[in-house]
Amino acid sequence: MFDHAGRIVSVAQKEHRHIHPRPGWVEHDPEEIWSNVQQVVHQALHDAGLQPRDLAALGIANQRETTIVWERESGRPVHQAINWQDTRTEGLLRQLAASPGADRTRELSGLPLASYFSGPKLRWLLDNVPGLRERAAAGDLLFGTMDSWLIWRMTGRHLTDVTNASRTLLMNLHTLAWDDELVELLGVPPGMLPEIRPSAEVYGEARGELAGVPIAAALGDQQAALFGQTCFDVGDAKCTYGTGSFMLLNTGQRPVRSERGLLTTVCARVGDEAPTYALEGSIAVTGSLVQWVRDNLELIGSAPEIETLARTVEDSGGCYFVPAFSGLYAPHWRSDARGVITGLTGYITKAHLARAVLEATAWQTREVLDAMTSDAGIELSTLRVDGGMTANNLLMQFLADVLNVGVVRPIVAENVSLGAAYAAGLAVGFWESREELRANWHIAAQWLPNMEPDRRDRGYRKWCKAVERSVGWLDEDDEV
Amino acid sequence: MPGRIQSIERAAAILRLLSGRSRQLGVVDLSDELRLPKGTVHGILRTLQHVGFVEQDPQTGKYRLGAALLHMGSSYLDGNELRTRALNWSDSLAARTQEEVRLGTLHEGRVLIVHHVFRPDDSLQTLDVGTLLPAHATALGKVLLASHPHVAEELIEAGMPRYTEMTITDPDRLRRELERVRERGWAAEAGELDPLRASIGAPITDRTGRTAGAMGIFGAPQRLFTSGAPRPELLTHVREHARAVSHELGAIPW
After folding, report:
1. Closest chain B residue to A410, measured at CA
2. Does a structural domain hold residue B254?
3. Which among A141, A331, B53, B86 would be 20 to 30 A from B114, CA to CA?
4. Which of B84, B95, B125 sits opposite A391 (nearest CB)?
5. d(Cα A181, Cα A101) in Å, to the nearest integer?
6. What range defines the domain where residue B25 resides?
7. Are residues B13 and B128 both part of a single domain?
8. What is the ipTM of this complex?
9. Which residue of A has its CA nearest to B118?
10. CB distance from A44 to chain B under 8 Å?
11. Do B163 and B119 share a domain, yes or no?
């Protein structure tokens, strides 16, 4: 819950289960998530001593691409939600890639044909859960991403926001409607798709715990963070550093088609305004590498201790760590890559390794930023950052050094939630304009580049060589 | 299995006796209690003194636990960990008070800044994480000294530098001030380090009830103080936010 100045009033959170039925499969329980949402809403209100009537509006930000199918009549999910990280559709995608029109997905949807997105997950459910295709064709089933599921539960309406829809591989990026060609390519009954709505408008009034509160926004989490960071202008960019990292660059009303392996996605659409677009680069392993060092190598007792350890040395001692644990994402998209630690000598200690772990996050950001600059023809002046890893000062300084741009952390770290609140507040007139939101944005910390250009260039050259050593590791007959 | 080393067992017995008393003990007290020759006790004490585990009072000649040992026992939460856990609440404190926020821990008698949030007015500011501030002339320092009296005594012994007319340099005045900080659960100063600056701080307590650090705001005296005292609403924010971080560390169930 946020107040008019964009300050946190109360925070409630609850983890839900990751279900791993098989290697590479990741599922969530939609009923558990719905139950947790109700609990945290109750808790947040309770902690602040407030009632639902005190709320101006509610906005939703959700992990994107997670796919749910449920019964129109009973509201019961027919299967666990398939999480965005789930890779079960890879075989299916190889088939689809051979279909006519498969090369058109980038042009139509802004996305490559990849396991990440909702469309293939939906198709997998239709192909693999007995009876599903027939029931879907008969109009008994509904599809949605997490925003749709929650809005359905809260208001009874079946809709999705345009940013979430832009991650399905089913939406045409230019018309912002379900694309006949893509729907046909993926073989999905159009009747089960939700209505695509703007990111900020009143979808309806909540029932139950929040009775009477307008549900007024939905955004994918990364788009919500961009909104929370008030990156409203062309050339504004943010990177969220969590277990993985996501960098988005606002390209305004122009969808930029990437030549460098980035995604083109909808930034946001507020009411009847024209939509804005973004280029997105995702990095699979950043914070999770620190967790890996903690849990699998046991070099540190807690994630923040990585900074303590890394600070005991001046540099990585020439050691580079490419964490391609499940291949490389943007800008390489090499699923045959696997992790490497290179540049090892007898001199390297665990402290150098800790440093290389942190530096890997910065170098990966540099690769994505270079791709964005080249695709969009926009030079970044400042990178806005958020997420848990921004507490790491050593990393933030190194990031500024290798990107050679200023890095700023805004005063509210919870930008995903804030973005959802901002969009909802705009929709109901709680805030009048984006200008008002910009005035709420303040710098909490800033790191300025302070590295010799020569050292930066040499470091990046070595990083690129390290990446070369990670790709092509998997062979045809390797079991993945 | 190798045998136990008698002198280490005896040293441990001495340390245990010293830790169990608030008063100091002399060689005679210890040798009586442990039924050991005075010469043996004296030798062990000299060795413990050498490694910093005990200290001898210069006036009475009696012994007490040394600072090095106390530091070991109260090993502070890693500063980077503290920053990570405090991130949301320190942002919130800066937003609420419109002032700069810092988190500090004790480091060799001074305040090590482990986290810094800019004053939210978008003026040009520089991160000063890693710098050291004098403990006796800042609110954060007083909070930390109040819960680590042995460090305060060391500081008093070493002499407290004067920065402004307001700086506390008199040992008894500092002791009284720290007593008040302990009672109230917060500290404040206006112009004691810099005539144009003031600070208000409160302790962050960890799971074991130890003071893990201090969190506070820094700003112009006229903004932080009114009629010689910290502004009540600012003080409340500082205390509530420090409490929220303590809660985050698992200290206070609420």
Report:
1. B91
2. no
3. B53
4. B84
5. 8
6. 6-69
7. no
8. 0.73
9. A444
10. no
11. yes
Q: Which helix (H) or strand (E) holds A161?
A: strand A159-161
Cβ-Cβ contacts under 8 Å, B129 against chain A: 393
**Sign of dihedral through CA atoms A348, A352, A358, A362?**
negative
User: Is A444 part of the contact surface with chain B (CB cutoff 8 Å)?
Assistant: yes
The answer to whether A413 contacts B88, with C-beta atoms less than 8 Å apart, is: yes
For chain A, 480 residues long, give each residue's pLDDT as a single digit of tens: 999 988 888 888 888 888 888 888 889 999 999 999 999 999 999 988 999 999 999 999 999 999 999 999 999 999 999 998 888 898 888 888 888 888 888 899 999 888 889 999 999 999 999 999 999 999 999 999 999 999 999 999 999 999 999 999 999 999 999 999 999 999 999 999 999 999 999 999 998 888 999 999 999 999 999 999 999 999 999 999 988 899 999 999 989 999 998 999 999 999 999 999 999 998 888 999 999 999 889 999 889 999 999 999 999 999 999 999 988 888 898 888 999 999 999 999 999 999 999 999 999 999 999 999 999 998 898 999 988 899 999 999 999 999 999 999 998 767 899 999 999 999 999 999 999 999 888 899 999 999 999 999 999 999 999 999 999 998 878 875
DSSP string, A236-299: -EEEEESSSEEEEEEEET-PPPPSSS-EEEEEE-BTTSPPEEEEEEEES-SHHHHHHHHHTS--
- Whole-angstrom distance, CA of residue A372 vs CA of residue A157: 37
Residue of B nearest to A438 (CA): B122
Selecting from B80, B121, B122 the residue whose C-beta is nearest the C-beta of A307 gives: B80
Query: For residue A256, which of A165, A115, A373 has the smallest C-alpha distance?
Result: A373
Cβ-Cβ contacts under 8 Å, B79 against chain A: 308
Instruction: Identify which of B78, B92, B122 has the shortest CB distance to residue A305.
Output: B78
- Pair (B100, B32) in one structural domain: no
> What residues of B are in contact with residue A447 (Cβ under 8 Å)?
127
User: CATH number, domain at B199?
Assistant: 3.30.450.40
As a whole number of angstroms, the distance between CA A424 and CA A418 comes to 10
B87/B190 same-domain check: yes
> What tokens does A180 get?
């006949």
Q: B43 and B130: one domain?
A: no
Q: Do B21 and B139 fall within a single domain?
A: no
d(CA B225, CA A454): 49
Inter-chain residue contact B80 with A392, CB threshold 8 Å:
yes
Total domains present in chain B: 2
CATH number at residue B46: 1.10.10.10
Tokens standing for residue A1: 């819950």
Prediction pTM value: 0.80
B interface test, pick of A442, A448, A450 with most B CB neighbours within 10 Å? A442
Choose the mutation target among B90, B121, B127, B129 for the interface with A, i.e. most A CBs under 10 Å. B127
CB contact under 8 Å between B127 and A393, yes or no, is: yes
Of B78, B96, B127, the CB nearest to A7: B96
Among B42, B69, B96, where does a domain finish? B69
- In terms of domains, do B231 and B179 share one? yes
State whether residue B9 sits within 8 Å of chain A by CB: no
Which of B45, B69, B93 corresponds to the end of one domain? B69
With H, G, I as helix, E, B as strand and everything else as coil, classify residue A318: coil
Q: Which residues pair with A59 in a beta bridge?
A: A217
B74 belongs to a structural domain: no
The DSSP call for residue A77 is B
Can you tell me the distance from the alpha carbon of A321 to that of A151, in angstroms, rounded to the nearest whole number?
42
Residue B235: strand pairing partners: none
One domain for residues B43 and B155: no
Name the B residues in 19-58 with CB < 8 Å from any A CB: none
Please judge whether A305 and B122 are an interchain contact, meaning their C-beta atoms are less than 8 angstroms apart.
Answer: no
In a domain, B253, yes or no: no
Give the closest of B88, B118, B125 to A8, CB-based.
B88
